[in-house]
Design a protein that fits this description.
heterodimer, A: 225 residues, alpha+beta, Helix Hairpins, Immunoglobulin-like, 5-stranded mixed sheet, 3-stranded mixed sheet, 3 helices, 10 strands, elongated, B: 177 residues, mainly alpha, Cytochrome C Oxidase, Chain D, 3 domains, two-stranded antiparallel ribbon, Cyt_c_oxidase_su4_fam (chain B), mitochondrion inner membrane (chain B), Cytochrome c oxidase subunit 4 (chain B)
Chain lengths: 225, 177
Amino acid sequence: MPTWGCLGLQDSASPLMEQLTYFHDHTMFILILITTLVGYILINSALNSLINRFLLENQEIEIIWTILPAIILIFIAMPSLRLLYLLDETNNSSVTIKTIGHQWYWSYEYSDFLDIEFDSFMAPYNMDSNLRLLDVDNRIPIPLNTQIRLIISAADVIHSWTIPSLGVKADAIPGRLNQVSFLLNRPGLFYGQCSEICGANHSFMPILIESISVDSFLNWVSSNS
Amino acid sequence: MALNPMYRRALALTIQQVSRQQTAAASTVSKIGNRDVVGFGMNGTPSYIDRVDFPMPAIRFKENTPDIQALREKEKEDWKKLTLEEKKALYRASFCQTFAEMKAPTGEWKSVLGITLILSSLGIWIYMWMKMYVYDDLPESFKPEHQEAQLKRMIGLGANPVQGISSKWDYAKGDWK
């Protein structure tokens, strides 16, 4: 979850998010390099009192400053394309969860074993026990280290289901099923908020995943049937 | 002898050319008066411009008078014979400002800074008014005790344990690392 003054990405809870974080850091490094170089050149030119008013053209420098950015872009594009295809890989999910967005709550269905359905409303703020705008009454239990398939849809207007620390976001569109796939590699609570304007209480329908061991998950399934 | 058509045409063309040149010269004279054109200047037009990077304007600054003409004749001889006043008169006849006058600081930065600060302070006054009369109060969760409780919960949950807040907490010790 985000903490105060959180400028960067949250710590990742899934391997794909780790890769996204690494790619972000790699690209940011290149961007800082370019910005420093351009800033240095700008300052140098501004403070230089020797001006050639009649400078017209120079073929060699034009070639250099076309080829060099192309090479830099290749260094960005290669990991980017690798990650793009990695995110779209098919994986054999063990658990399938359906989530439907309503105005203004999420409902979840676990139909793999026994039909479990529940709604998840935002919990009213209580200083001692929860976080404002983030906690819910019924969390989504998900087993650790298990490939999860999540099918997202909506019942009324467009919503969007997201968990930033998993790098997952997909619109919940009425009449459409969107599928995302993820794997949780550490236990804990992972928060998200509805990401598509859906009416008056759009800011008040959060998402909360509880990552638990497989045993605990199976206990929960059997106790909830 | 009647002029034959070819000669007549040549004469007409010459008269046209001369009249064009005279018109050009006349319009130049009408714009700059009795001032000599002495060079190319900044852009080839007969205009007077005081610029450090174009030090030789296209025209003299003042119109020619008999006094200046006399000085110009004297200028053609030994310069040591010219008095300081005469040198200054010759300079001011050809130029408006000296280099020192051109480069002298204008003090414009004081007005710019002053006006910028006035407008910024106006902005701050507007912000203060907005804070007092327009904005709602912050929610309860912004109070320090509430934020402490939230921090306690975040650490208890182990939120962002890799590089974030929980990685700075020593769980064995029960205090920050």
